[in-house]
Amino acid sequence: MHPRLPLSLKAALLASCIFCPFITSASVSDGSLGNVMYVGDSITHGINSGSYRWALHKIFADNGISYSAAGINTGNYSGGVAAGISYGGRVFNNAHSSQASARAYEIAGRADGANYGRFNGSNINNWLGLSTEKTKGGTYTGQTFTGTAAPGTFFILAGTNDLLSDGNNGTLNDRLSTVTQNLLGDMDSIVGAMKTANSNAEIIVLSIPCWTQHSNGNSNATHQAVADYNESLKNWGRDKDGVTVIDVNQGIIDVASSTPFYGVRSMFNNPAGDGLHPNAQGDLLMAGNLAKGMGYAGRSAGQERKAAHELGVNFGQTPAITQQELTAKGFTANNVTISNNTINFNKSGSSTLTYNWGASQGQDKGYTVDFTLRLGNGATGGWDTTNNFSLNLGNGTLNVNEAYIQWGSTILYSKDMSANADSIRVAYVAGDNAHGLSAGYYVWLGDVLIGEAQTAAGGSSSGLTFSYSGTLDAILSNLALDGSLSYAPSSSGITGPEAIYLAHGGASALKPGMIEWTTDTGATAVAPAGADNTYNVRNSANSNIAVITGTGSTRLIHANSGAYGTAENRQDLWVTLGEGVISDNGWIGGHTSDDLYGDINLRFAEGSIGKSTVFGTVNAGTVHGDIYLEFSSSTGNFDTSFTVGEADRTSVAGAYATAVNGDITMVFNDGIFSHRIFGGVYTGSKTISGSTSLYINGGTFMNEIYAGNKTQGTIAQGTSLTITGTNAILGKADGDNWAWTLLCGGNKTSGTINGGTTITLKDIAATAGDGSEHKFDKYAGTIDGKGGGTVNGEKKLVFDHYTAGFLGTLQNFDKVQVTGNSDLALDKALGDTVASLTVDAGSTLRFNQDQGATLEITNNGTIRTSHNLTLKSADTGAGTYRVEGGTLDLAGQAVSGNISICEGALANTAGLGAGSVSISGITGNISLGGLEGGKLGSINMGSGTGTISGLTGHADLSGSDTQLRLSAANMGAEGTGIIQFNNADGSSLTLGELTLTLTADAVARLTAPGDYAFHITNAALHADPNNITLSEYNGMAWDITRTEGGRVIISFGQLDAMVIDSNTVKNVTSAATLGATPSVTNNGTLNIDLSQGTAPQDKATTIRYLAGTEAAALLNTGTDHDVIITLLNETSADPDKPGNTAYAGSILGSAQLVKDGERRLTIDGRITASALNVQQGELVLQNTKESSIISGALNVEQDAALTLNSASLAAADLTGSGSITLAGGALLTIARDTLSDLTLNAAISGTGTLKLDNCNLVLGTGSNLGENVLLHLGGGGLRLQDGSTIALEGLHQEQENGTLHLGANGRLELASNDGKTYSFKGNITGTGAIAHRGEGTQIILSSGNGNVDVSHTQVGGHLVLGDKDLAAEGTIAYRDISIGSNTRDASGLDATADLSLMNNTTANTLSMASNGKLYLGGNPSQRAVRLVLTGSNGGVAADLASGASLDLTVNTETVSHSADARWAAIQAENGSIRINGTSPSINVNIYGLGSAGDWAILPQFTINALYAENGLVTADGASWTADMVNLTYAGFANLVYDIGKVLSGDGKLFQVQFTKLGDSPLKGYASTDNQKTAVDSLWAVTSAPQDISPAMMEFLNAVGNAQAAGDTGTIQSALSSYAGSGITALHSAQKGALKDQVLHLRNRITHMGASLQYVNDDLPRFNTWIEGEGGYRKLDDRMDESGYKLNTWGGTFGFDVTCSDSFVWGAAFSASYGDLDAYRANGNLDSYYGNLFLRLQSGRWAHNLILTYGWNDATLNRTAGVAGTDMYSMHGSTSGSSWGAFYEGTYDLYLNENRTSVFQPLVNGSIYKSRMDGFTETGGLGMSVEDMDSTYGTVGLGARLRGELSESLMGRASMGELRVQVVQNLGDRKTTAALAPVGAPGAGFRVNGAREGSTGVQIGAGLTIPVGYTGSLFADVNADLRSRANSLNGSIGYRLTF
């Protein structure tokens, strides 16, 4: 029984049903792969490993999978294993067709650049004999695989190098679409070649393996891009017949890695240096995944398979694990939880489970443990890879954690173990060195082997311990073990036809029919020689087990003579006749004389001679047992001497005049048998109660073989004769001829066989060469199913895995079966007696003769016939009939399968199904015999010719592709249709995609341009001309213009304009077609496929005046890079040629595009191409959504123009000297594979970006790069010519390996307009200047250059200079620094030109204009930066215009240098610092005191701000005075210190003195209580700087800046946000929600109770109700005291019991979910309430009481900070609880006599206690919040009006209600919270929330509507109105009375 196939193989199985002559067939499904070719790159070749092929070979050997590897290469690229190594008795020849570094395009035969050249220029077409021309020319003379050597199965692993080695792998993600398109195109070519070579081929495609780190690409984006390609590969393979794509990455991908598609490092060769090529562990998992994907069983490692419940210690097939069972079976559990048949190890501390199996087998026979483990919670909370769940076996440990299965510390498999459902099996395997199996531990996951021969420390284990010390769930289940043997897991996977490898007995040596010989000890003896000797083995050896040798001839030899054994005490005989045993003048028998009770097993071993006849039993009474005769001696020669006449001479017979109460089996492995063989009775009317079975595996047989009797006797249970393989010789020379041996399943002359006969011909393949003339594949004798006498039962012939022609004659068979993936050709008829034929799935039968008799056929495979064949009855099989000639007469029978016909006829087809007939590969005329059109499925004529006739009705082939080959006979007025219907007038033919090819005589008639008619059919033809393609023609332009009747009209020569409408498709396969078309308007899809062209002119075409208005239009140029498509727009006087055109669609594909003609072509869509050449005119691209990609070069010739209108275009190179305009922010990307110089000859202008990857841009002295162009360097640099000036929008470079080379005295001007920010990171070389003149920001991160000036002139702009890494110890150097322009715009008098130095800087001089501003450290950075000036200009080092500004950042380092009078933030070593102007003054602003914790609060300190060796002077040489420096200070220091100015006596040093303040300067700004408490808190924070967090420091700096600026509004806002009164809203809303909930319940209770108008005799009465509720509450903010808005929804479920006329009690459960908004905060408040209530009615008085308890879940998101700076977000979550009681009393005043209207005065009161638990916020300014609790209540006074509104049909009235009351709040009305900044508990404070008015008015209304007799709908609405607060809520519900 074969297991069910996986879905992935279904497509492959379909392909295996089609027969192809002379090619070996393969069947993946049955484990017979045939010839196998592995195709690929280095991963298949093998780098320091045998590759996955070696691991897969072991799987095949373990499971008996049949295959033979072939290829052009042998061995591994490096390391690996030697060819000829074996495993399990199967040799691994290490043959393949792979090569390290190979690309898919090389294998496919597509030349692609300089990288081409692996395989010595050959390709798949060469290897498969499809072509002798190599890819780039030259003749292939290497090995080819054709005919019987053609591969039946291919494995392909290609694409790794195409993805990672070609092009910049860092940009693979950007190029992935194009790379995927090219790569899958190459895969199509490879698969196409394989299918051409063998249409039956099974093709297995492997996904690209993951990797770790490798020079080919390591970025996250690159890893993800390859993973995305694998998904595309899977989608590609889904619809391809015979192709299966299998993901081989399971277990290899590291699930814990943050990098996507990242492998486990230890599974790859040399992880630090290679990391791409799998090692032996990676190969093991790849092969396991591959086999699993094919549906095969996993590795068994030569071990017997057993399921867990079959092991020695188990808990049943459905495991029942309890504490009692564990103890009973010998387990000891400690600190575990046992429940639900699982064991959880998650308890605190160490948890263990131990078992001792005593004296284990150790290295002798091994032991086994099996279990399932689910561990942890995956990625949640991060991967725990340190706390291992361990299985310790004493000499080895398996460790499992959340992400890995490990042996010791070696990772075997990576998987999320929290989701694991596969069993884990660990077995110690003793090993089998003789067959390549190493000893050690083997580990399986499911049935996939994941650990092979893992090291064992010592020889044996006495038991095991499971242990775990973590706290995650570690759930063990399905536990089983065996301490005596090693077993592989059971598997439902496929196994093959060959012997499986079992290590305990070596590779299986048993041939068909053989039995396992006894291993018990027996005797040895020598048979005595002598012409009259009779030798009784059992008596003479005194043993029923004996090995006998001989020294001469013994007349009679018997295994036993005389009575032996009894029915109660059976005695089996095991006799081996060995060296020299011979009987020259008698016979050899198993038993003679009297009865034998037992089996006879008689073996002729190597060296025995035999000589005489052999009988299973002779001249005895009865043998009560089975008889087994085995002939395995090459020296055996079985003649006869007891008979003389040739008619009686016999070599072997089952029984001579003896009855057998059992079976007789004969196995022939070797020897010569000169005379006949009989499986049954030779003579005597005796009975064999069982069956007779003959197995012929080898030997020479010169006479007839009968499975039955000679002349007499009866066989009760049938006979069988099996020929296996071609080793046996069946026949002998007869003069010059060869006489073949008769094979007969029956008797010779007479006798009886009950149970039928079976002859099986198994594993017969074609042979060739010397000595093959008489092999069985050449057998031409007679095979007879009956013979003489009587046969009762079916006479059957089986061809099992028969893959050759059968030349013999068949007779006397009832049934023939073809099975086991046979490929059988019959040269003769089956015979008149055969009534039934079965062809099983995967097998093929070809008839080479007419089959005269009608047949009952069940065809699940393929039947090929070129002669007449008639069916007798319905065929229910799912196979295919391939008609290649003759007539297949279906006799009107139902046929479930398909018919494929290439020549010949069908007859009587009424029983066929819809679409079941296909015409393919036509070789002659076809008559379909009146086939109804709906039964025709497809037509593909191929290269043959012929007509198709005999159709009727309507044939619809629109669902398949049709290919027709037309001849001259199908052309012109006299032509006839190639497809003929019997009743043309009433018939039709509908086609989908149609491809036409022409014969030579048809082409010869195409002599001049014009329309030609081609006759397709004599019926009505329905076909869309857009779906018709002409693939062979005379080279003229052509176009399918229309269909007429049954004809297709094709225009040749000059064509009309081509117009493709929306949603239509046009296919063009001729280069001349478009070349002859005057214009093309495409609003649909135009597919151009010129890939079949061979000459260059056949791959080049022109599209004139391309136009179209549909954005969805597509021009598809195909996948061939050699195709050239010219887009021509030229000037013409012809009004039909418009010159400039616009095309709204896209142009996609791999062709080369050329824009030619002097006019303009505008393309709105996307383009992809292998090259783009703008030769003339203008090409405008304006797709703003998707980037256009050119995989090759972009060339713009002189006088040509390319314009990008807000579009993006990427290319691999840029050439030409034309103009390129980047308009509207367009992006042009040039990305080279390797770094090289790019000299820009084209003129690039506009306002877009030029992005260069791996390019050093070289610009000339006259820049052809526009000043508004942004230059983006993605790797590489910019090089200026000496003395040149270049102006750009900006310079941007993300990577730090860039270079800016100024040449000698070069000048680079950067604009950065419109407030943009650009950044350059790299080296600056040369001499010259960098000038920034824009209003944006230009960042230059470089160590600088002391020979380069830097300047920034534009106010509002910013130039930032810093070290590459902005490292604290980094330094930079420049020559002269210039800031500002001394001109101010009247509209921006305060605007400055800013320059920041982010690292300590050395410069020659500094020059600052009045609007210049220098930042040292970069406000608001806390880094202190110095500027040291080493030069002087006329004695002046720094020239500062009056009004210039210096922003100095100081820290503790600055303070520490205050004693050094020559040290300052700005220090001039050799000159003065001069202030120019008539009223000299400068602005100095001080920032920062360092990071929190770096300093302590000092009472007073001084910093050195400016120092000049030649003095601090004015323009007239006077020294500075203090009032010349406008000193400001900001940030944190402003909140703590007052400052003063100090000038040194020598006029060289300016200092700033800091003095600590006595109190916070913020107090004067605080206006609210909350602000005042915030000020106190912040002052406390500043008093403990060591506790200040970075976020708090930023906040304090921002507050300090606002205070320095005197910005009252900003300070007050910041203080209010810091105070965080929004926190109080949680508690305020909690209280309001509780009161609303109680009122909801109060409204329900007032309607409860028994009606006093009626007699209530059915009490107690039970009621239940449910309601939905929604509400809105609002409390207004009071300045910065937070109110809130609460929107709620929820519901209540309740029940109540009316116990009496006066008493009701009940309970209710409510849930309310609320969205909360508060002062600078929002969140959620979810509340849940449990309520008990009662109602007491006493006369007119009613009393209602409610007891409630609630609990809350709350979250709050809050923001705080200083306006205009970064705001901080905080988050907190907490819970709360409330309880309370509510009482209401009412008095009824009836308003009418029947008391249906009532006025109720009411009074109520309540008391509540609520608490919101304390919590700690996360986020920058998070607070620790203490508990908030309140005790509060209400009293109310009001009235209710209630009355009946109307009465229902059931006599129940609707009720309405109005109510109003005045409510007074009591108790804690105001909400406050105690807060403290996180980490600063000493800075705590209290904050107030808003308070609602104490007195309110509540109004409400209600309505109750009865439903039926017991139900009612109700609705309520309530409102609470009071000062600063109001609420509105409502509910609707349903009440039911039981």
Account of the 3D structure:
With 1938 residues, this protein is mainly beta. Helices cover 10% and strands 44% of the residues. The protein is built from 19 helices and 150 strands. The strands form 22 sheets. The chain has a 17-stranded parallel β-sheet that branches. It has a 15-stranded mixed β-sheet that branches. It has a 13-stranded parallel β-sheet with strand order 27-29-31-34-37-41-45-49-54-57-60-62-64. Strand 22 (440-445) and strand 23 form a beta hairpin. Helix 3 packs across helix 9 (280-293). The longest helix has 26 residues, at 172-197. Residues 1-25 have low confidence and may be disordered.
Identify the notable features of this structure and list them briefly.
1938 residues; mainly beta; 17-stranded parallel sheet; 15-stranded mixed sheet; disordered N terminus
